[in-house]
Amino acid sequence: MAVVAGGVAPTRKRWRYLLEDRRVLGPVLIAPAVLFVVVVVGVPLGWAVYLSLTNAIGGSLSGKFVGFHNFKAAWHDHNFRNALENTLIITFAAQAIVIVGASILSHALVRDFRGKWFVRLLVMLPWAAPVSLVTIGWLWIFDSLFSIVNWTLKQMHLLGVVCGAFGIDGCGPSNPPQWLGNDKLAMFAIIVVQAWRILPFAVVIFIAGLASIPTEVDDAAKIDGASGLRKLFYVTLPLQLPIALVAVLFGIVFTAADFAVVFVLTHGGPFNSTQVLTTWAYQIGIESGSLGEGAAISLFLFPLLAAVTVLMLFFAKRAQVS
Amino acid sequence: MDVLRAIWRRSGTWVVVGPFAIVLAFPFYWALTTMFKRDLDLYNAKNVPYAYNDAQGHAHWDFWNYMTFHHVSFLFKHTQYPTWLENTVLVGVAVVAITLVLSLPAGYALARLSGGWGQSAGVGIFLVYLVPPTLLFLPLSRLVAELGLRDTLWAMILVYPSFTVPFATWLLMGFFKTIPQELEDAALVDGCSRLRALRRIVFPVSLPGILTVVIFAFSLCVNEFIYAFTFTQSTSERTISAGVPNELIRGDVFFWQSLMAAVLIPSIPLALLYNSFLDRFIKGFTGGAFR
Fold first, then answer.
1. Three-class SS of residue B53?
2. How far is residue A162 from each of residues A143, A178, B191, measured CA to CA in Å?
C-alpha cells in the first residue's frame, strides 16, 4: 500500500512540476491543434499535389505517375485559360469596388449617429448570411422573366442605356437584358455579387484600422493644424493602410477561392464562358471524373495564394511596428 | 458656416450610409417581399414587384390583405428543409465543441507561454486559414469515401474544424492578450497551478471572447458549401447550405417564394448575432498581431 502511494506521488508531482514550466506547458497546449491541422489540411494538400501528377480517375485515390502532363494539358485547354482569366478578372474587379466602397463606408460608420445599430445590421447582412443561399437571392434578382432589376430600369427608362453600355445586339425595352444568359452580363453579375458579399467584411476590418489609430495621433494632428482632407491624406490613410491591405488580401483569397457564387449563379455558363478555376476543377475532377487533372487545375490557385500570403506577412509586420 | 457644418454632421452620415445600406440589404428586402406573394401576383411581369398586387394587376400597399403564408408552410411541411436545419445545427454544435477543445489551450499558449516563436506559430496557424477548401475538396472527398464517411454528417464534423480551428485560435489569442497578466500572477502567487489558473481565472474572464468565437465558428460551418456539397448526396444528410441550392432547385422549376423563405430564415438570426458581437470580433481579430 505504502509502496504504491510512494511510487505514484513523486511521478505526479514531477508531471505537475513539468507542467508549471512554460517551456513545456506551451508546446503541450499548442500540440493538439497543430497536429489536427497538419493531418486535416496538410495530408489532403499533399495528396492534391500527388494526384495532380498522376492519371487518377474518379473513385480511386491513386493512379499512374504522369509527371506534369495534367498541368500541360490544362494549360493548353482554352476552357482552362478562360477560367484562369475569369478568376483574375472577377477577383480584381470585385476588390476594386470593395476598396472604394469600404473606404467611404468605414469613415461614415466609425462615427456615432442615431440609428447606427440598425444601419450596421443592414450592412452586415451580406456577410452574415450563408453564401450559397444569398446567391439564390441574386439568382431571383437576375431572373430571365421577372428580374426586378429590369423592371426598375424599365420604369426609369434606363434599359436602353444599360443595353448600349454593354453593347448587346437587339436588347431593349421589348427584349430586356438576360443577366445570366449573356457572357458579358453574367461576368458583370458575378463581380457584383462577389463585391457585395465581401464589402461588409472589408468595412469591419477598415473600421478596426480606424479605431486602432491612437487618439494622441489625432490630437497631434490637430495641434499641427491638420484637419479635414489634409488630415485624411497625410495622417489617417497612411496609418490605416497596412490593416486595409490585410482586408484586401483576405478579399482576394475569399473571391479567388470561392466556388458557391459561380456554381449557383451561372454554373459556369452560358457555354462555359463564366467558369472560374474552382468550378472548372469541379467540372473536370468530379463531373468528368479526371481526378488528377482536376487536382492540377485547382493547384493553379496556389501561386496566387502564396503571393497573397507573403504580402500579408509583410503588411502584418508593418502594422505591428506602427 | 458652423450651422452648415452642423447640418452636414447630422445628415451627411446618412447621405453616405443610406445608399450603401439600401444596396447591401436589397436582396433581403426583395426576398422578404417575395416569400409572401401569391403566384398570380408574383408571376405577372406587369405587376409592380415592390408592392402586393391583386388578380386584376392593381398594386396595393396594405400588403397584409394580399399576402399568403402558403409557401412558407410548404417549405416546412413538404420539403426536407426542417431536416437540413437540424443537420446544420448538429454539425455546427459538434464542430464548435471540437474547435474549442483544440483552440482554447492553443490560443492561450500562443498569447502567453511562448516566446519569440509564439508569434510566428500564431501567424503560421492563421495562414492555414488561407488554404481554401476549394484546393482540398478533391482529395478530401475521396478520403472521406475511403473512410466510409460519405453521406454522413461525420464527414463534415471531422473536416470543418480544419478551418474553424485556425480561425478560432487566432481570435482567442487576440482576446487572451487583452487580459491583464497581473490577474493570473496573483492566482499563481496564491498557490494556484497554471492549469487551474487557466480554468478558474482566465477562461471565465474571457467568456465574452469565447462566445464571440463560438458564434463566428458556428456561422463558418453554416456558410461552408463545397465540402457539404461534395461529401453528401442523399437528401436527408444535407445541411441547408448544400440542400437548398441542390434539392429545392430542380431543373427549371423554381418555387421562388419557398426558396426566398429558405434563404431568409437562417440569414436574419445570423446577422443579428454578427451585429451584436461585432465590436468584440474586431477586438479579437486585430488584437492578435495588428496592434
1. strand
2. 16, 12, 74
Cell of B248: 429545392
Question: For residues B220 and B164, is the Cβ–Cβ distance under 8 A?
Answer: yes
Query: ipTM value of the model?
Result: 0.90
The answer to whether the CB atoms of A257 and B42 lie below 8 A apart is no
Whether B13 and A114 have beta carbons less than 8 Å apart is answered as no
Q: Which residues pair with B53 in a beta bridge?
A: B59
What chain B residue is nearest to A125 in terms of C-alpha separation?
B271
Domains and CATH numbers, chain A: 1-52 (no CATH), 71-142+179-321 (1.10.3720.10)
Helix orientation angle between B116-128 and A301-321, rounded to the nearest 10 degrees:
140
Q: Which three cell numbers stand for residue A48?
A: 492534391
Whether residue A29 lies within 8 A of chain B, CB to CB, comes out as yes
- Whether residue B128 contacts residue A305, with contact meaning beta carbons closer than 8 Å, is answered with no
At residue A10, the pLDDT reads 61
CATH architecture of B82-287: Orthogonal Bundle (1.10)
Alpha carbon distance B84, B88 (integer Å): 6
Please state, in angstroms and rounded to a whole number, the distance separating the CA atoms of residues B42 and B39: 5
Residues in chain B, total:
291
Half-sphere exposure of A212 (CA within 13 A, CB side): 28
Residue A172: which residues within 8 A CB-CB, separation 6 or more? A159, A160, A163
- CA-nearest of B283, B193, B191, B222 to A204 is B283
> Scanning every residue of chain B, which has its alpha carbon at the shortest distance from the alpha carbon of A60?
B142
| pTM, entire model | 0.90
Whether residue A281 lies within 8 A of chain B, CB to CB, comes out as yes
Task: State the Cα–Cα distance between residues B256 and B277, nearest whole angstrom.
Answer: 32
Rg (CA), chain B: 24
Nearest in space to B64 (alpha carbons), one of B87, B33, B92 = B33
Phi/psi at A168 (nearest 5 deg)?
-105, 130
Among chain A residues, CA nearest to B291: A320
Q: Which helix (H) or strand (E) holds A223?
A: helix A215-223
Contact A135 B31 (CB under 8 A): no
SS3 A93: helix
A136 touches chain B (CB under 8 A): yes
The Cβ-side half-sphere exposure at B224, using a 13 Å CA radius, reads 30
Instruction: Return the residue matching grid coordinates 483569397.
Output: A253
DSSP code of residue B113: I
Q: Which residues contact B3 (CB under 8 A, 6 or more apart)?
A: none
List pLDDT tens digits, range B86-132. Answer: 999 999 999 999 999 999 999 988 888 766 676 777 777 778 888 88
What distance in Å separates the CA atoms of residue B226 and residue A34, rounded to the nearest whole number?
Answer: 24
pLDDT tens-place string over residues A57-94? 877 777 888 989 999 999 999 999 999 999 999 999 99
Strands B52-53 and B59-60: antiparallel
Pairwise CA distance, residues A112 & A76, whole Å: 55
User: What CA–CA distance (Å, rounded) separates B40 from B38?
Assistant: 6
Partner residue opposite B17 with nearest CB, options A48, A105, A138? A105
Query: Can you say whether the dihedral through the CA atoms of B54, B59, B64, B67 is positive or negative?
Result: positive
Is B20 a residue whose pLDDT tops 80? Answer: yes
Average pLDDT over every residue of B199-218: 88
